[in-house]
Amino acid sequence: MKMIRDILPYFEMELTQFYSKKEAQNMAFWCIHSISNLSRSEYLLSSNSPLSANTVSFYQSVVSRLQKFEPLQYILGECEFYGLSLKVSPSCLIPRHETEELVHWILQHNFTNALDIGTGSACIPIALAKHTDAQITALDISSDALSIARQNTKNNTVKIHFIEHDIFNDIELKTSFDLIVSNPPYVLESEKTLMNNNVLDYEPHLALFVSDKDALIYYKRIIDFSKVHLQKEGLLFLEINEQKSVEIKELLENNGFENVLIKKDMQGKNRMVKAVRKS
């Protein structure tokens, strides 16, 4: 690998036994954009340009890590979410397309302030802040995740108030919210066998998994929290495990929430819920 034109075939040759050819190509072009700052068309126009030894070494390092199924987002330290560029690290989850759908649904509603519980990279509050004039607060237990979140806030030129806090402990807040959102851990421990190594080996399990014996533990706590800190007639949005959608709906209805609506994601799975606090 000496020239720009060699990058794509190098990725295809080294990665197709681990990923599909299309995946290898997409990862190559993502790296070309991130490392060499070239679009696909610019890659073709610059095909005869030489690569420095340091650049070749970096591409080789990336491929070696991809062969171990390390997520490319962590390797490059960045990802895209709802048209935004975000920093990510193993201290926070890589934002998913389903969460983009949740954000899109939220943005169809009016609100003046909002709280995101378990913010991670702050993908949700940054997207909300970019598209509304609402005052946004975000909460997380992880100081490392909040460090990434603050960098993302600065890089995307939005203002968000961050709170480092364990949701299972009580907290006094100066304001109540007319919208609360959360994408809490909801993957069952028993579902680990269905997941890929790039998730199991690299993403933070604290942000992903819950015990099968108490699968709704975070939802119960978020609902109790919302009964205190969400205004009456306020909106609660949650990302959910499709297997637990009926139980979560019943939990909300038994705790003073009405107009509970479950929404499917683009894969046809019950993936998010909206509810209105009535009492």
Description of the structure:
This protein has eleven helices and eleven strands. It has 279 residues and is of the alpha/beta class. The chain has two domains: 4-68; 90-277, Vaccinia Virus protein VP39 (Rossmann fold, 3-Layer(aba) Sandwich), CATH 3.40.50.150. It has a seven-stranded mixed β-sheet with strand order 5-4-3-6-9-11-10, sandwiched between helices. Strands 1-2 form a two-stranded antiparallel sheet. A two-stranded parallel ribbon has the order 7-8. The N and C termini lie far apart (65 Å). The relative contact order is 0.10.
Total of DSSP H or I helical runs spanning 4+ residues: 11
Which shape, going by the Cα principal axes? elongated
Proportion of residues in helical segments: 25-40%
Structural class: alpha/beta
CATH topology of the largest domain: Rossmann fold
Strand arrangement in the largest pleated sheet:
5-4-3-6-9-11-10
Mean pLDDT across residues: 95
Query: What's the CATH C level of the largest domain?
Result: Alpha Beta
Key traits:
279 residues; alpha/beta; Rossmann fold; 2 domains; 7-stranded mixed sheet; two-stranded antiparallel sheet; 11 strands; elongated
TL;DR?
The protein is α/β, with parallel strands linked by helices and 279 residues long.
SSE blueprint:
Layout: H1 7-15, H2 21-36, H3 40-45, H4 53-66, H5 72-76, E1 78-81, E2 84-87, H6 97-106, E3 113-117, H7 123-131, E4 135-140, H8 143-155, E5 160-164, E6 177-182, E7 187-188, H9 197-200, E8 209-210, H10 217-229, E9 230-239, H11 245-253, E10 257-264, E11 270-277
Helix pairs in contact: 1-2
